[in-house]
Design goal:
13 helices, alpha/beta, 17 strands, 460 residues, elongated, Rossmann fold
Length: 460
């Protein structure tokens, strides 16, 4: 956009250095998947170990010479680092290697730019890219001489760097205004769902854990789902029907990843607000993944960063079709409430168990009420019917509606306050199921680091 830099080719060299002074190391396998998802073709890997990065080029002089030889021998036009590089390190490496250099953050931004389809998604990605680019303008041009300015083109004008900074600042302001309008529209939609008293369930989880496949399975949609990182960027909302609850809204959102760039979290706040405003989170976990424990912790960190750590969560252990010894089931806590559901979004095994668990979570406080509504409250009766709350109804000779419905305590009080309406409580929905008959399954507080093959799959 603003740079005179070497063109990037499809072939690339990957650089992965173990920094012993850092506790959390990046995953090399995930880095390779990111490169492939971006459309690059890895032709070589340069790895090593250092106590801490070198300030000027991140690598030591010997490793930098090795990287230059490897790049030249393979004719690669791009070098990808599985680390966050400072703007100075990135410029110095490009000068030494004479090719384009991208760090982990730039690689993720490139994937997001390729996958964004909606107008909102493109705006969010552009905002993140501009914020990332604003720190990398210095020496991006080879002609940073001062431009002439003033009347008659005399006097000191602006440098090209200053022009670029001003252009980026103006574009960021414009994008923020557009995203604020998007935020307003989303807020209107949420308010409408709240007035209709439709509960919202949001999918959350590590990228490529199967969230969109689960979304398609539950809603009957056919949204794009693929075995690749960040296949979904734009949020989607669909209505689903749940036992004992009726209608609910299911939201599919962008997946998380380790060390998700902060500017991406900031740019996607309008999208992630669907997660913050949900009544229940479905935390989708790849049960066959070797690093599922680390992925769970990364998701929790991002949820805490966006203020969604206190929303109730139901863990869905997906992809049990890849672990033959696992079958669909519901794990419950000491009080009998669903804690985890084991299923396969690909084959549909465990779908009924998941719907049951969701119905129990959202219907925990619902009560079965006997309502008597006068004819003038036919609109209220229609809204309850549309939500799927009504179990049975009858009409007497005066035209009054005698309805048995599932309602929350707040909704019961609101209906009882309406003129001509009567509410007679019957029993809670939880009383319909004998809690003592629910199986008490022992479980660990965290999923253990064990493979999913053999007798002990490590996910009990």
């Amino acid at each position: 956009m603003f740079f005179e830099r070497p063109d990037s080719g499809e072939s690339c060299v990957l650089v992965h250095i173990n920094i012993t002074a850092e506790k959390n190391q990046e995953d090399l396998t995930e880095f390779e998947e990111l490169a492939i998802s971006a459309g690059a073709e890895p032709v070589a890997l340069v790895s090593g170990s250092r106590e801490r990065p070198e300030s000027a080029t991140f690598l030591g002089s010997g490793k930098l010479e090795e990287l230059a030889r490897v790049r030249e021998s393979h004719g690669a036009g791009l070098v990808l680092f599985n680390h966050a590089l400072t703007p100075g390190q990135e410029r110095n490496l490009e000068r030494e290697l004479r090719c384009r250099v991208l760090d982990r953050t730039g690689l993720i931004l490139d994937i997001f730019a390729q996958r964004a389809r909606s107008h909102e998604g493109k705006l969010q990605v552009e905002l993140a890219q501009l914020r990332h680019l604003s720190t990398r303008l210095k020496r991006g041009w080879s002609h940073l001489d001062r431009q002439k300015g003033g009347i008659g083109l005399r006097g000191a004008g602006e440098k090209q760097l200053e022009l670029d900074q001003r252009m980026i600042g103006q574009r960021i302001k414009s994008i923020r205004k557009s995203l604020n309008r998007v935020h307003g529209r989303r807020e209107l939609g949420r308010n409408a769902r709240q007035r209709a008293e439709l509960p919202t369930i949001s999918l959350a989880g590590y990228t490529n854990s199967g969230k969109t496949s689960l979304f398609n399975r539950l809603t009957g949609a056919s949204d794009y789902a693929a075995d690749q990182l960040f296949a979904t960027l734009d949020p989607r909302l669909r209505r689903i029907s749940l036992p004992a609850v009726g209608a609910a809204i299911l939201a599919d959102t962008v997946g998380f990843i380790s060390h998700l760039p902060h500017q991406l979290v900031e740019a996607f706040k309008a999208t992630l607000e669907e997660t913050v405003a949900a009544q229940l989170l479905i935390h989708v976990v790849d049960a066959a993944g070797a690093r599922r424990v680390e992925h769970i912790e990364q998701v929790r960190e991002v949820l805490a960063e966006i203020g969604a750590e206190d929303i109730p969560q139901l863990v869905v252990c997906n992809k049990i079709d890849l672990c033959p010894e696992l079958g669909p089931r519901i794990d419950r806590d000491a009080n009998g409430r669903p804690l985890r559901v084991w299923m396969s979004a690909l084959t549909g095994a465990g779908e009924e168990e998941l719907r049951t668990a969701l119905g129990e979570w959202l219907g925990y406080d619902l009560r079965r009420e006997s309502l008597v509504l006068p004819p003038r409250q036919a609109g209220l009766r229609s809204r309850l019917l549309a939500r799927g709350c009504i179990e049975s109804e009858a009409v007497d000779e005066r035209g009054n509606f005698h309805i048995t419905a599932r309602l929350s305590p707040a909704e019961s009080r609101r209906i009882a306050s309406l003129e001509g309406c009567r509410v007679r409580p019957r029993k809670t929905m939880a009383a319909d199921t004998t809690v003592s008959a629910w199986p008490k399954i022992r479980y660990n507080s965290a999923l253990e680091r064990k493979p999913c093959n053999g007798d002990s799959h490590g996910l009990e």
